[in-house]
# Entry
Amino acid sequence: MRILPRRPHRLRFAEGPDWRRIVPVPSSRDAQTTADSMENEPTADEPIRIGISACLLGRKVRFDGGHKHDRYLTGTLGQYFDWVPVCPEVEVGLRVPRPTLRLEWHDGDVRLVMTKEARDLTRAMRSYAESRTAALAEKDLSGYLLKKDSPSCGMERVRVYKEKGPPNRNGRGLYAEALLARFPHLPVEEEGRLHDPKLRENWITRVFAYHRLRGLWMRRWTPGDLVRFHTAHKYLLLAHSPKDYRELGRMVAAAKRIDRRELRAGYESQFMAALSKTATRAKNTNVLQHVLGFFKKDLDAASRQELLGHIQDYRGGLVPLVVPLVLVAHYVRLLDVEYLRDQVYLQPHPKELALRNHV
# Structure
């Protein structure tokens, strides 16, 4: 799989019907392989739209009139994603600049309060969040990035103030709460957590996987299409959750006996739950050793030993995942191992992002 950035680079917002990004179909050796690979790949008419807190794009919508521009998001990820910016506090009708908001615990409920003006905005924000997230369903989002610590957008550990004592870090922003309730399978993350290489790689892996899965559902898919999709994601799923991979396999095997809507809902739920689990060195090592078995007949002993050495170095934390994977990809091309060539695990996201250089 090869997904190229847009050129020339320019930050774009998916706020109208004319925004499109180009996602080239992966190159292949013949027409049949091309047709097969297209079964699970995005097309040029399917942009990868990501919802995002508008301040992270540099928009001056924060309470102090400033922003929290994240150049990794706009400069790097912006080459692959179309951003759908949202600022709940501005869109609910608050001015810029404005007094700060915070979450407070009152009478058994979390309230959104503007303390300086003694305004309770809970009802207004919850009503807005319900209608705004409903409208976002039409955007066909493949992911979402929220601003950490925000009383409206924070996903976790947002301060909740009590009448006495220090605040608890156990809250969730009211808009984030509605977003997660409406889109339980959507890859959602906070921008602060993307500084962790493992969490960053996991979120971007889920975004591209969810986009591929949504592309499958958008067609007149058949049980056979789902089998091919599941097969292509075998090693990616094994790297995240072997248990979920086996259970999904049983679901796919029984696909013809399951109602289509039930099958789609069940597969999507467990597929995304599986990928939300961290791919550890131990699980990646297990996958790499499975892959090594495909080369035992055609690869000489010295080359197999070299690859095994890289796998062991990765398992021991001496090298990142990209080191054994580069050699694996080389042998897949050299030996033309068709089954592995179609495995999403070898490139679940654009290699230009270099995400596996740090995990």
Q: What stands out?
A: Strands lie at 49-53, 82-86, 102-106, 109-114, 119-120, 143-146, 158-161, 168-171, 188-190. The chain has two domains: 43-194, 197-359.
